[in-house]
């Protein structure tokens, strides 16, 4: 990268990655887990405890019920705000990934982050600690470099094939390493489905701040990045710009995978973007359509998870997947759209 501002951008993104590597989640993880578990148990039983409340304590029982209702509302508000923030950037970068035809690149970064976490556990680093985030950051950083520089010259070998092989290697490495750990099955499950019960207002605020910086980067350099996406040919300093693009994804990955897990993080990125791209070539319209459909699907998935006591990640992923299938059916009934991207 010969441009001076590219170096400054790289330094800035590395600073953001260092900030992300000092997570806000573990500080409140255990407290949040216990509070959320208690909240879910109370909510799923319709707050109908088997205690006999005497007439003297009816007022206290009403106050406790009101507090539990407030806790539920706060819990849903945290989840919905985090999802709303995450979907904005994920939908936009997902549209780039789909149009570039590198569908599994984010899955590679997600899986490499999970691999870094599992490596940390293997050497005694507790899941969700700052050191664990550092391990995920290191693995993701290597993945960003590989994705930027590896571009097969042979037309018979598409870039997606290389990306798929990289993902397979990262996944197999996770499986082999987890198999040697006493709690390998649990650790691997955590990296796949995450722990959405860790969500708190400090995490929402941190995520919003970091995503705002990344959105600013994509907005300032949108013409160049969109130019690379739409032309899909060699441009000056292509590897440098690709690296910065993948690095922005890597920062997202480091922040969201410990909370949402690999599968849901990938779903956030690809499914709403695919719905947007399916109906329009315009960037703004596609972003709005993808974000709104993803948001509605996630809210419905969140309430389904709450009412059925099902895991968050699979519930949200299934809801977005069903929305995608419905979008496919609707798109099949509509005429083929014409017009270029804008």
Account of the protein in words:
The chain has 342 residues and is mainly α. It has a domain at 4-41 and 66-265: Orthogonal Bundle (ABC transporter involved in vitamin B12 uptake, BtuC). The protein is 79% helix and 0% strand. The two termini are 28 Å apart.
The CATH first-level class of the domain at 4-41 and 66-265 comes to Mainly Alpha
Q: How would you sum up the major sheet?
A: none
Q: Gap between N and C termini, in Å?
A: 28 Å
CATH architecture of the domain at 4-41 and 66-265, by name, is Orthogonal Bundle
Q: Measured on Cα atoms, how large is the radius of gyration? A: 22 Å
Q: How do the helices and strands follow one another from N- to C-terminus?
A: HHHHHHHHHHHH
- Helical segment tally? 12
Helix fraction by DSSP (H/I, runs of at least 4): over 70%
CATH homology-level superfamily of the domain at 4-41 and 66-265: ABC transporter involved in vitamin B12 uptake, BtuC
Number of strands: 0
Q: In percent terms, what proportion of residues is strand?
A: under 5%
Mean pLDDT, as a whole number?
A: 79
What do we call the CATH topology of the domain at 4-41 and 66-265? ABC transporter involved in vitamin B12 uptake, BtuC
Stretches where pLDDT is under 50 for at least 5 consecutive residues are 23-37, 39-55
């Amino acid at each position: 990268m010969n441009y001076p501002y590219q170096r400054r951008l790289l330094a800035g993104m590395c600073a953001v990655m260092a900030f992300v590597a000092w997570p806000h989640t573990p500080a409140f993880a255990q407290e949040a887990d216990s509070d959320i578990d208690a909240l879910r148990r109370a909510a799923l039983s319709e707050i109908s405890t088997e205690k006999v409340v005497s007439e003297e304590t009816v007022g206290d029982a009403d106050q406790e019920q009101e507090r539990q209702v407030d806790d539920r509302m706060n819990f849903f508000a945290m989840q919905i705000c985090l999802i709303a923030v995450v979907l904005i950037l994920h939908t936009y970068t997902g549209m780039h990934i789909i149009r570039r035809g590198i569908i599994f690149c984010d899955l590679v970064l997600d899986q490499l982050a999970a691999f870094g976490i599992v490596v940390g556990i293997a050497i005694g680093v507790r899941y969700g600690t700052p050191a664990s985030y550092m391990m995920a950051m290191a693995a993701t950083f290597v993945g960003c470099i590989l994705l930027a520089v590896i571009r097969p010259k042979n037309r018979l070998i598409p870039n997606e094939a290389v990306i798929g092989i990289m993902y397979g290697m990262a996944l197999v490495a996770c499986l082999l390493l987890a198999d040697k750990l006493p709690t390998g099955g649990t650790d691997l499950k955590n990296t796949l489905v995450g722990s959405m019960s860790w969500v708190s207002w400090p995490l929402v605020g941190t995520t919003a701040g970091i995503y705002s910086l990344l959105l600013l980067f994509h907005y300032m350099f949108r013409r160049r990045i969109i130019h690379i996406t739409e032309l899909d040919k060699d441009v000056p300093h292509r590897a440098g710009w690709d690296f910065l693009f993948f690095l922005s994804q890597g920062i997202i990955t480091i922040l969201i995978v410990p909370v949402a897990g690999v599968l849901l993080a990938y779903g956030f990125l690809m499914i709403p973007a695919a719905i947007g791209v399916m109906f329009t070539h315009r960037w703004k319209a596609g972003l709005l359509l993808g974000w709104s459909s993803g948001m509605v699907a996630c809210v419905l998935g969140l309430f389904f998870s709450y009412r059925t006591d099902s895991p968050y990640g699979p519930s949200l992923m299934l809801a977005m997947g069903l929305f995608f299938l419905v979008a496919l059916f609707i798109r099949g009934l509509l005429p083929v759209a014409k017009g270029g991207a804008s």
